[in-house]
Amino acid sequence: MADLFNTMAVSASGMKAQGARLRVIAENMANANSTAETPGDLPYRRKTITFANEVDRQLGIETVRVAKIGVDKGDFQRRYDPAHPSADADGYVLLPNVNTIIESMDMREAQRSYEANLSVIESARQMMMRTIDILRA
């Protein structure tokens, strides 16, 4: 039974990490079209997330955790819009370095990973319940 509990702990850490990833993706997508408020200011910069292995010494298992939430140093997009309040002297507005197609693909991958971990937890729970049923008989 201890192995089933450990399995659930590993999957729970994966769900927690993927939940954090989804929050970062949601923030990126929410700010994909934001601009700076004044000329010379920088717009929203895309955030990134990095995972790392972590050893749970109490349980003796390896889990996953969020190692870092950073920023993407990639170039900002530029759009010609001389009427925009944050346009520079040449009429260009800086836009975030967020590509919504990439964010959508990352979101789908995070969702699938989250669901896979949830499925593992459900399977382990069912196995535990069956074991308990057998022991009762």
Task: Write the SSE topology.
Blueprint (H helix, E strand, L loop, with lengths): L1 H29 L16 E10 L4 E11 L5 E4 L11 E4 L4 H37 L1
Antiparallel strand pairs: 1-2, 3-4
Please tag this protein with its features.
137 residues, alpha+beta, two-stranded antiparallel ribbon, elongated
How would you explain this protein's 3D organization?
With 137 residues, the protein is an alpha+beta fold. The protein has one domain (2-136). The chain is built from two helices and four strands; from the N terminus they run H-E-E-E-E-H. The strands form two sheets. A two-stranded antiparallel ribbon has the order 1-2. A hairpin with a 4-residue loop joins strand 1 and strand 2. Helix 1 (2-30) runs antiparallel to helix 2. The chain is elongated, with a radius of gyration of 22 Å. The mean pLDDT is 94.
DSSP helix fraction: 40-55%
Strand content: 15-25%
Mean pLDDT: 94
Q: How many domains, in number, for the residues? A: 1
Radius of gyration: 22 Å
Q: What is the count of DSSP helices, taking H or I runs of 4+ residues?
A: 2
Q: List low-confidence stretches.
A: none
Assembly level:
single chain
Secondary-structure class: alpha+beta
Order of helices and strands: HEEEEH
Q: Please provide the count of β strands.
A: 4
Q: Characterize the largest beta sheet: strand count, sense, and whether it forms a barrel.
A: 2 strands, antiparallel
Strand order of the largest sheet: 1-2
Report how far apart the termini are.
17 Å
Tell me the overall shape. Answer: elongated
